[in-house]
Amino acid sequence: MAKLKKSDDGKGSEQSTHSEVKMKKELALIDGVAIIVGVIIGSGIFVSPKGVLRNSGSVGQALIVWILSGILSMIGALCYAELGTMIPKSGGDYAYISEAFGPLPAFLYLWVALFILVPTGNAITAITFAQYILQPLWGACNPPYEAVRLLAAAAVCLLTLINCYNVKWVTRVQDIFTATKIFALCIIVAAGAYYLCIGHVEHFRDPMEGTEWEPGYIALAFYSGLFSYSGWNYLNYVTEELKDPYKNLPKAICISMPVVTIIYVVTNLAYFVVLSRDDILASDAVAVTFGDKLLGAFSFLIPFFVACSTFGSLNGAIFASSRLFFVGARAGHLPRAIALIDVKRLTPVPSLIFMCIITLALVMIEDVYVLINYVSFVEALFITISVTGLLYMRWKRPNMNRPIKISFILPIIFLLICGFLVIFPCYVSPVEVGVGLGFILCGIPVYLVTIAWKNKPDWLNKIFNDFNNGCAKLFLCVTEYEDKES
After folding, report:
1. Are 156 and 322 in contact (CB under 8 A)?
2. How many Cα atoms sit within 13 Å of 248 on the Cβ side?
3. Residue of 208, 207, 280, 203 lying closest to 46 (CA atoms)
């Protein structure tokens, strides 16, 4: 019978004791590359070129944004490589913000990630997967809302089950679907190259025509581009499970980020060769429009491969982000039951189930896509705080062990650009920024009541303890049921 056991004392010690249960270091370099590439290349490259082009105003500016977004993501990933090896704990931004600035900012990041950032991203990816799988069955009509949501929920539950059962299964799924999505993009690039070779260059005759120079709109164009690159920091969530992280973390970043950037730029070139500016702006799924115009009878391949791409991206996101909530619970910022590990499989089953429940709730919301506009600003804000923490610890803790130490200029450049991305959209889309900030501020009273308030009355402590014990029993029942079924 599998059992759930607390992972450690929550003090961040890297020393193992007989009473501790920790997750195995099972991720090799190739698995790390597959996680980064697999998580990044999801639905974004197939649908967000429209957002980049709309806010850029021209084909030339859009391509510049795609290139610079890749370079910015690479710089950010290298900053996170120093953070990840200096603070070799799972949890990514949560661990770094906690180490640099203390528990309250770390809790606010966890608060936003738990209820908005991670489950919303997972829900959108699952819905995109379901829409593209079902679209060929309904032809020109949109698939029914209920069918899309049920299939999306089934995908979330299936991948959660795989993640609960075995880490090696997760990496196999990730490796397979990473190869599949790259193959899909190769089809698009090859078709675009053929179209270019037969003389179609009309869309590049005046590439900078209509360029939008307003800083706020440039920042929003980068939001769309960086949304497609989001996931470059996910490997930092699973540092404790990465073999030889001091070597493999930076290697995985240096291999995967240039690969993704090249793939994205040449894919957009293919889009722009085949589709006019108006075609792209009129489409909600650029890759499908591309396939319908160029692939003829084989256009069905694009929805299939987009579905494969999003399925693999969802798998990688579930695997990596569940470690964030596991680490947050281990530090006492979430219910203690979430910090339990299945002793038999050494996977954070409660964290995975907890995240699955929140994702399923968001899958059922019809306008879930609107949420991504509210949280893009918040995500940029907390990444800025993490990199600020890197510079702060360079100043306050110069003797701290840094197996990887990047040039001082890189975090400075990254911080300045992130500052631009945080500040300038405030006047272009003040509602989204206001909602994001409002949700962050709502986390402060939650922190004060549940964590900072040490002398809580007995009745409140009893409620919290009963909740933790109930969750632990529920998760234990689930694990026992899985054992009986297997």
Report:
1. no
2. 23
3. 280
Pairing of strands 340-342, 4-6: antiparallel
Q: Minimum mean pLDDT among 83-97, 227-241, 244-258, 472-486: which range?
A: 472-486
DSSP 172-235: HHHHHHHHHHHHHHHHHHHHHHHHHHTT--GGGSSTTTT----HHHHHHHHHHHHHHHTTTTGG
Q: Which single residue is written with the structure tokens 């944004």? A: 65
Three-class SS of 250-286: HHHHHHHHHHHHHHHHHHHHHHHHHCCHHHHHCCCCH
Stated as kind and residue range, the H or E segment containing 350 is: helix 349-363
* Location of structure tokens 């979330």: 156
**Residue 310, CA distances (Å) to 30, 109, 205, 236, 318 in order:** 20, 25, 34, 21, 12
Give 253-303 pLDDT, tens digit per residue: 888 888 888 888 888 888 888 888 888 887 766 777 788 787 777 777 777
Return d(Cα 6, Cα 254) in angstroms, integer.
Answer: 35
The tokens for 228 are 């497609």
Question: What pLDDT is attached to residue 150?
Answer: 93
Phi and psi, residue 342, nearest 5°: -70, 115
Quick one: DSSP state of residue 143? P
- CA–CA distance, 187 with 176 (Å, rounded to integer): 17
Q: What is the dihedral of CA 84, 89, 92, 97, to 10 degrees?
A: -90
- Measured CA to CA, the distance from residue 363 to residue 188 in angstroms comes to 29
Q: How far apart are CA 476 and CA 414, in angstroms?
A: 44
- Which among 191, 216, 237, 193 has a CA at the least distance from the CA of 83? 237
Length of the chain equals 486
pLDDT at 345 over 70: no
User: What digits encode the pLDDT tens for the residues 178-190?
Assistant: 677 777 788 888 8
Burial (Cβ within 10 Å: 0-12, 13-18, ≥19) of residue 50: buried
Give the CA-trace dihedral at 446, 449, 454, 455, to 10 degrees. -170
CA distance 313 to 118: 12
pLDDT at position 417 over 80 = yes
- In order of 61, 66, 257, 310, the CA distances from 416 in angstroms are 20, 18, 21, 32
Percent of the chain scored above 90 by pLDDT?
3
3-state secondary structure of 312: helix
**Phi and psi of 207, rounded to 5°?**
-65, -20
Instruction: Using pLDDT thresholds of 50, 70 and 90, give the confidence band for residue 154.
Output: very high
Q: Are 299 and 177 in contact (CB under 8 A)?
A: no
Find the farthest-apart pair of alpha carbons in the chain and give their distance in angstroms, rounded.
77
